[in-house]
């Protein structure tokens, strides 16, 4: 078996396959030259300068399982007829079963001077930003998504005058609504982050950015947290079915091609609890899907049925979301003494919950969302 990608989906797939076939060859191909690492800490503990080991496994872990980790190579295309993976240098890797788990790639910042902005997607990116922050007195974070919020809070917590610029009135409004955005903006303010929105950066300079209203913001350090998009190029070039930029798979992570599976950010997978295909972009979900893909490739198919979820750290606050991540019709806000819960509802059912210091609600959400319990009057 070959897994393309060394993130949680690729590693979980390889380990799951190996557990069921102790003797067959298993290879993991990745363009990243680093040993596999966890990405969530990159915008949290690691960027904040707190000691945190990001390595997922030691070299010995791979050796004991006889998993061949091939780093620093880029897969160019897949030959479905020959059942081979071909790298950019022309090397061919034959496979019997293939798991595509290339993850996502950053959405480029398309403005003059964009090359002066740093991205935060890889370990190398995080190291670069962390080193640049040591000399910075001011910073601008472009983008009001989850990664941008975490990064801005970390930079401000390091004593850097930090401004976040986003194209909506409050952070994450399009995703979680106005109530959530207002409370997230307050969390950022409590961390020392200045939020400007709706606004758009039209140029990145050596010493900051220029906004669409002509205003300028100083920034010794500029971070482009402009989101990511699934990397479905291998599937698209091989005429494997995709939809909306993701690889379409069933509940067992099987694609439209024989013996080819996909998992993680790149997959649009059928969730049996949801009764529909669900896109996810979160670490735990990628690991779960990878395990299913590896088991299915090994001939022991299981089905994806967990309710997706994630945690987000803004300073000392820990936001938790559980739900399908789909559109909602109504929200219900419940403020607590030291936090809040926002319930998201559609078609008379709870489809998600966002909580702060409300773990009981977070745990309840898994049951309500997963079992399609009607909303009480």
TrEMBL record:
GO MF annotation, one: oxidoreductase activity, acting on NAD(P)H
UniProt-listed Pfam families: Pyr_redox_2
Keyword Ribosomal protein: no
SUPFAM superfamilies: FAD/NAD(P)-binding domain (SSF51905), FAD/NAD-linked reductases, dimerisation (C-terminal) domain (SSF55424)
Keywords: FAD, Flavoprotein, Oxidoreductase
GO-annotated cellular components: cytoplasm
Source domain of life: Bacteria
Named cofactor requirement(s): FAD
Residue ranges of the TM segments: none
Domain FAD/NAD(P)-binding: 4-290
PANTHER family (UniProt xref): APOPTOSIS-INDUCING FACTOR 1, RIESKE DOMAIN-CONTAINING PROTEIN-RELATED
Name of the molecule in the record: Ferredoxin
């Amino acid at each position: 078996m070959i897994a393309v990608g060394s993130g949680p989906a690729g590693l979980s797939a390889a380990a799951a396959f190996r557990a069921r076939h102790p003797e067959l060859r298993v290879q993991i191909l990745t363009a990243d030259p680093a040993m596999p690492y966890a990405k969530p800490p990159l915008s949290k503990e690691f960027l904040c300068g707190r000691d945190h080991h990001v390595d997922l496994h030691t070299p010995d872990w791979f050796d004991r399982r006889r998993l061949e980790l091939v780093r620093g190579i880029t897969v160019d295309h897949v030959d479905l007829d020959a059942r081979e993976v071909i790298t950019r240098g022309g090397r061919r890797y034959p496979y019997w079963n293939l798991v595509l788990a290339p993850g996502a790639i950053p959405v480029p910042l398309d403005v003059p001077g964009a090359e002066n902005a740093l991205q935060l997607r890889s370990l190398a990116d995080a190291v670069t930003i962390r080193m640049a922050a040591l000399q910075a007195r001011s910073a601008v974070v472009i983008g009001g998504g989850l990664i941008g919020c975490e990064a801005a809070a970390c930079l401000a917590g390091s004593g850097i005058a930090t401004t976040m610029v986003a194209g909506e009135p409050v952070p994450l409004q399009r995703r979680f609504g106005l109530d959530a955005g207002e409370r997230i903006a307050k969390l950022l303010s409590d961390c020392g982050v200045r939020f400007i929105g709706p606004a758009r950066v039209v140029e990145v300079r050596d010493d900051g950015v220029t906004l669409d209203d002509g205003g300028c913001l100083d920034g010794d350090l500029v971070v482009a947290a402009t989101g990511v998009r699934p990397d479905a190029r291998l599937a698209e070039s091989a005429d494997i079915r995709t939809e909306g930029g993701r690889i379409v798979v069933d509940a067992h992570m099987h694609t439209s091609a024989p013996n080819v599976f996909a998992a993680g950010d790149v997959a649009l997978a059928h969730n049996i609890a949801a009764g529909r295909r669900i896109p996810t972009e979160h670490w735990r979900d990628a690991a779960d899907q990878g395990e299913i893909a590896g088991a299915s490739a090994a001939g022991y198919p299981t089905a994806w049925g967990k309710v997706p979820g994630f945690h987000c750290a803004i300073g000392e606050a820990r936001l938790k979301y559980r739900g399908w991540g789909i559109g909602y019709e109504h929200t219900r806000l419940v403020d607590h003494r030291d936090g809040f819960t926002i319930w998201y509802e559609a078609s008379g059912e709870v489809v998600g919950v966002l909580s702060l210091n409300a773990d009981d609600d977070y745990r309840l959400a898994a049951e309500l969302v997963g079992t399609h319990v009607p909303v009480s009057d």
